[in-house]
Amino acid sequence: MPVVRIAWWKGRTREQKEKVAMDIEESMVKNIGCPKGVTHIVFEDVDKSDWAIEGKLQG
């Protein structure tokens, strides 16, 4: 079972996450032949204040 983890800033809606999850599921089936329904997708919603780029906190 493949696990896909997506870490991003908080603020995406449930509907946006569902669309992304469906696209990932379809890609795994199409591109690597995974059986439908075995891919696990984990969304990690992170506060901007807990995310740093080039050593600088973003929030």
Give the SSE map.
Blueprint: E1 3-9, H1 14-32, E2 40-46, E3 52-53, E4 56-57
Parallel strand pairs: 1-2
Antiparallel strand pairs: 3-4
Describe this structure in words.
The protein is built from 1 helix and 4 strands. The strands form 2 sheets. Strands 1-2 form a two-stranded parallel sheet. A two-stranded antiparallel sheet has the order 3-4. A hairpin with a 2-residue loop joins strand 3 and strand 4. The mean pLDDT is 97. With 59 residues, it is of the alpha+beta class.
State the gist of this model.
The chain is of the alpha+beta class.
The class by helix and strand makeup works out as alpha+beta
Indicate the percent of residues in helices: 25-40%
Mean pLDDT: 97
Supply Rg: 14 Å
Largest sheet: 2 strands, parallel
How widely separated are the two ends? Answer: 35 Å
Number of helices: 1
Quaternary state, please? single chain
How many strands? Answer: 4
Order of helices and strands: EHEEE
Estimate what percentage of residues fall within beta strands.
25-35%
Q: What overall form do the CA principal axes indicate?
A: elongated
Q: Which regions contain 5 or more consecutive residues with pLDDT less than 50?
A: none
The largest sheet has its strands arranged as 1-2
